[in-house]
Write a structure and sequence with these properties.
The protein has 14 helices and 14 strands. Strands 3-2-1-4-5-6 form a 6-stranded parallel beta sheet, with helices on both faces. The chain has a 6-stranded mixed beta sheet with strand order 11-7-10-9-8-14. Helix 2 links the parallel strand 1 and strand 2. Helix 2 crosses helix 12, helix 5 runs parallel beside helix 6 and helix 6 runs antiparallel to helix 13. The longest helix is centred in the C-terminal third of the chain and has 20 residues. The protein starts with about 25 loop residues before the first helix and ends with a helix. The structure holds nicotinamide-adenine-dinucleotide. Nicotinamide-adenine-dinucleotide binds next to helix 2 and helix 5. The site of nicotinamide-adenine-dinucleotide (NAD) has 24 residues, from helix 2 and helix 5. This is Gfo/Idh/MocA-like oxidoreductase N-terminal domain-containing protein. Keywords: Oxidoreductase. It holds the Pfam family GFO_IDH_MocA_C3.
Length: about 400
C-alpha cells in the first residue's frame, strides 16, 4: 500500500510513446506488418559473382543466399573438391556456375554480372577488384581493398573513372551499438570527447597459415579499431605511439605482433587508447567506453553460486558478435548500388585509416613516436580541427 499513492493514471489514459528510434528491428517489423509496397524494394535483383567461400565468404553467404535483392550467378573458389559440398550445403540452384580462379575470366566477360563480392585471401583482392571494376561491375570487398595504400588509391580512382561503387567492408560501422555511440557523440551528447578507450582481443586464435597472408596485425586487426576512432571522433590523428610485442613464439617467427598498446593523439586534444591482443581465451573482447561486450543469451546473464557470480560467456568470435552488422552492411551496399544512397565508407576514410595503420606499424617497429602530416591528403573540412574551431570561436 505504501507505494499505491505514487500510481499515476492508467496506462490506457496516457499517450503511448511508441518504439524508440534505436529499436530498428521493431521498425522493420512494423513495416512488415503494414505490408506497404512503397517501403519495399522494387528494383531487379543484382546479378552477382562471389569470390571465396572460406571464413568471410561463409559469413556473408549466410545473408546473400537468402537475400531476394541478389541473384548469384557464379561462385569462384580454388577448392574445386568442395564444389559439390558447397552446392548441397547452401542448397544452391543448378543455374549457379562454379569456377576456379583460372576460369574467372568468364565472370569478367559476362555482361549480365553487375556485382562482385570479394571474400578471398588479402593477397588476391587487388587483382579481382581491378578486373571487376575494369569490366564495369560494382564491388563489395572484404577489407583490405589492396595490400598497399598506393594500390588502394588506384582502385578507388578506377572505380571513379568507371562510375562504379567500390565498397570496403568495415562491418563495425554497421553494428547497432557502435552506430548509436557515434550518433550520440556527433550529436554532442558527450560534449568534447577527451579520451576514448578501446579493447580488441581476438577469438579464436587465428591459424598461422592465415596470419602469414593477413598483411600483419596492424593491417588485419587494428585497421578496424583505427577506423572506429576516426569515425567516432570525426577527426584524423596527428601523433601515433605504439608499443608492441610477440608473446607467442609462432607469431614472433613470422615477424608479427600479438600484444599491442596504442595511443593516438588528435588535433582537438582528444586521445584514443587502445589495447589489442591476437588471442582472448574467453571470447571476442570488443569494448569501447559505453559499448560493452555482448552475450548470446541476454536474459539469463548471470548465475549466483557459492563461488560467486558466474556470467554467461560473451560471444566467441566475430561471425556471431557482428552478425547483424554484416547483414546491415550488405543492405547498405545494395542501397548504394541499386538506389544511389550515399556511401557510408568513403575512399578518403579508407586511405586515411591505412595511413594511421602504417604509422602505427612504424612506431611499433622503431619504438618512435610517429607524426602524421595530413596537409596533402584529401581530408574533408568537417574532419579538420581548424574547421571546427572556426565554427566554435568564429574566426580562430
Ligand atoms: N571484416 C571481417 O570481419 C573479416 C573477417 C574475416 C576475414 N576477413 C577478410 O576476408 C578475407 C578472407 O579471409 P578468410 O578468413 O575468409 O580466408 P579463408 O582462407 O578462410 O577463405 C578464403 C577462400 O578463398 C578461396 N580462394 C583463394 N584464392 C582464391 C582466388 N584467387 N579466387 C577465388 N577464391 C579463392 C579459398 O579457397 C578459400 O575458400 C581476408 O582478406 C580477410 O582480411 C574479414
Amino acid at each position: 500500500m505504501a507505494t499505491k499513492k505514487f500510481a499515476g493514471p492508467s496506462a490506457y489514459k496516457l499517450q503511448q510513446p511508441g518504439p524508440p528510434e534505436v529499436d530498428f528491428l521493431f521498425t522493420e517489423f512494423l513495416n512488415n506488418v503494414a505490408a506497404d509496397v512503397s517501403t519495399k524494394e522494387t528494383k531487379e535483383p543484382v546479378v552477382a559473382a562471389v569470390f571465396g567461400l572460406g571464413r568471410a565468404g561463409a559469413i556473408h553467404m549466410a545473408t546473400i543466399n537468402r537475400n531476394s535483392r541478389i541473384k548469384v550467378k557464379y561462385i569462384v573458389d580454388d577448392r574445386k573438391d568442395k564444389f559439390d559440398e558447397f552446392k548441397k550445403f547452401w542448397a544452391f540452384s543448378d543455374d549457379i556456375t562454379f569456377l576456379t580462379p583460372k576460369e574467372s575470366e568468364k565472370v569478367y566477360n559476362d555482361k549480365s554480372v553487375n556485382t562482385v563480392f570479394v571474400f578471398t585471401p588479402t593477397t588476391t583482392h587487388h587483382q579481382i577488384v581491378v578486373n571487376s571494376l575494369s569490366n564495369g561491375k560494382d564491388v563489395f570487398c572484404e577489407k583490405p581493398i589492396a595490400e598497399t595504400a598506393e594500390e588502394t588509391k588506384k582502385c578507388y580512382e578506377l572505380a571513379k573513372q568507371k562510375g562504379r561503387t567500390l565498397f570496403a567492408a568495415f562491418m563495425r560501422r554497421f553494428d547497432p551499438a557502435y552506430r548509436d555511440l557515434k550518433n550520440r557523440i556527433r550529436r554532442g551528447d558527450l560534449g568534447h570527447v577527451q579520451i576514448v578507450k578501446g579493447t580488441t582481443r581476438d577469438s579464436p586464435l587465428p591459424p598461422i597459415e592465415y596470419l602469414k597472408t593477413s598483411g600483419g596485425v596492424f593491417f588485419d586487426c587494428l585497421v578496424h579499431d583505427f577506423d572506429m576512432f576516426l569515425w567516432l571522433l570525426g577527426e584524423v590523428p596527428t601523433r601515433v605511439q605504439v608499443s608492441a610485442s610477440a608473446l607467442m613464439e609462432e607469431i614472433k617467427a613470422i615477424n608479427d605482433f600479438d600484444t599491442i598498446a596504442t595511443i593516438l593523439t588528435f588535433p582537438s586534444g582528444a586521445v584514443a587508447i587502445l589495447d589489442n591482443s591476437r588471442y582472448s581465451s574467453y571470447g571476442i573482447d570488443q569494448r569501447m567506453i559505453k559499448v560493452d561486450n555482448q552475450r548470446p543469451s541476454h536474459s539469463t546473464e548471470y548465475l549466483i553460486g557459492q563461488e560467486g557470480v558466474k556470467f554467461n560467456p560473451i560471444y566467441y568470435s566475430f561471425p556471431s558478435r557482428y552478425k547483424l552488422a554484416y547483414q546491415r552492411e550488405l543492405e547498405h551496399f545494395l542501397d548504394v548500388i541499386q538506389y544511389g544512397a550515399p556511401i557510408d565508407v568513403n575512399s578518403w576514410q579508407i586511405l586515411a585509416v591505412s595511413k594511421v595503420v602504417a604509422a602505427a606499424e612504424k612506431s611499433a617497429r622503431t619504438g618512435e613516436t610517429v607524426y602524421i602530416d595530413w596537409s596533402k591528403d584529401d581530408i574533408p573540412a568537417e574532419y579538420s580541427y581548424l574547421h571546427s574551431l572556426h565554427h566554435t570561436f568564429n574566426g580562430y
